[in-house]
Design a protein that fits this description.
The structure holds 2 protein chains of 2 kinds. By secondary structure, chain A is mostly helical. Chain A is built from 17 helices and no strands. In chain A, helix 4 (115-122) packs antiparallel against helix 5 and helix 9 (210-228) runs antiparallel to helix 14. Residues 12-25 of chain A have low confidence and may be disordered. Chain B is mainly beta. Chain B is built from 1 helix and 9 strands; from the N terminus they run E-E-E-E-E-H-E-E-E-E. In chain B, the strands form 4 sheets. A 3-stranded antiparallel sheet of chain B has the order 5-9-6, with no helix packed on it. Residues 1-35 of chain B have low confidence and may be disordered. The chains are: A mainly alpha, B mainly beta.
Chain lengths: 450, 106
Amino acid sequence: MKRYIKTTAIVVTMATMVLFGNGDAKASVNAETAFILNSFSFLIHGLLVMFMAAGFAMLESGLSRSKNTATICLKNITLYSVAGLMFYIIGYSLMYTNVEKGWIGAFEFLYNPAQAELALLNTDEAGKTAANAALLRDSTYASMSDWFFQMVFVATAASIVSGTLAERIKVWPFLIFVVILSAVIYPIQGSWVWGAGWLSQMGFSDFAGSTLVHSTGGWAALAGAIVLGARKGKFGPKGQVNPMPGANLPLATLGTFILWFGWFGFNGGSQLALGSAADVVAIAIVYVNTNLAAASGVVVAIGLTQLMFKKMDLTLCLNSAIGGLVAITAGPDVQQHAHAMLIGGIGGALVVFAVPLIDKLKIDDVVGAISAHLVCGIWGTLAVGIFGSGSLVTQFIGIIAIGAFVFVSSLIVWVVLKMTIGIRVDGEAELAGLDKTELGVEAYPEFSNR
Amino acid sequence: MQRGLVKISRLFWIGDRGCYSRSRFLFLENNKGRSSGMKLITAVIKPFMLDEVREAVTNVGIEGMTVSEVRGFEHQRGQAEIYRGAEYTISFQPKVKIDIAVEDDA
């Protein structure tokens, strides 16, 4: 038996040498294979991120009261759609076309496949080889695969806003805000870094979007929560906090798991390539760091809530999983996995402290999005300056610049919306539930007794 | 039927285990109508005691009961819970109400 294995090993080794030369030749894939793999990575990772929209819908449905569930669901599917349309119509060009170290991209409407790609599709059989070569000379992935991957990120930012403002905001003004966020605010700040604008020139580093996606959503949500005000009865006259427990904690848990699942696409795909062994090694590291950070967030939260409140808190654990994920998003490529655990664990702890603190400030954040996405987004971006390759000062400048831009522009939009069409349902409608007044339907008609 | 409704407020204990202070159920109402010859016994109990109560009353020969899900509070005025680091009180606890019609001399 042993001898048989030995013989087989020799045969295999010889065959390998025959097939691939004597071993020192580079085994890298050719340009077309790399093109295919890079595009595949964008598409399949984009699909994972797309599913995060479902995660947000379930998390938000679970953490709000059942009289508002249908409205939450409607908001989530429409915001995903609106954000995707606006990013196609104008957002992508503003973010990625001709930014050239500047502040904003090109005002070009409708983003379409590159000329070389269309030429390849439409050429006859004789011209295929030349068209193929021409395409591979200029690009390393299908242009629309990149569009798809970037589109699902803007939808994530918009989802974050939805959760914070749940249970009291009118649907139409919210959608108008999503239009502006996904068409203008998000692409402009995104162009500063991922569009190769001024911040990226300074060396600001945000691998998958702790600041660009999560803090941006968080700042917009914070501005909205301040202008909108708290839900009726959330804060008592003597400053006490009146919890309004979510309707469905299994659904919130499912939503969190879906987000965790989608996050592998969010961070893994942000390697932006799959065409070499180095890319695959990097993506594998990113996957492991992403998981370690989320897991650390949960474990820290369960311990902290037991110590602080004498009871383990499920919904804070869910938020802390997200907090850990957001924290690692700026630097999931750190090569020390222990650092990922530390970054995620601190993210989880920040959520446990930030949720009651934000309550104390009388800011009503229904699902804890500001704590998980904004606070941990800031922490994760700073962590790149501490553990990663970035400079702490540059990271700080980026956080402040993007934070100021997104917060102020969102605040202006919310105030204008409030003064014109109004953003809040009237008091009676809020008590009856938005499902009845905004949609005329109930999410659970067979359990409508309360 | 409604005439002569009398509150008797009598504590009724079932079983013999120590925890039965929690399973106390109150006889709140009792129909002593002159002509009907029936009593309506109403009890409000904790939901998880329902099966045990059913077994106890069938053991003494009761043949039917009506059960409703209700909510209420008693001397501890609701129960303290904690959600996302903030305490709150559930002002009405779920309870089960039992109605049993029995012969007047039962």
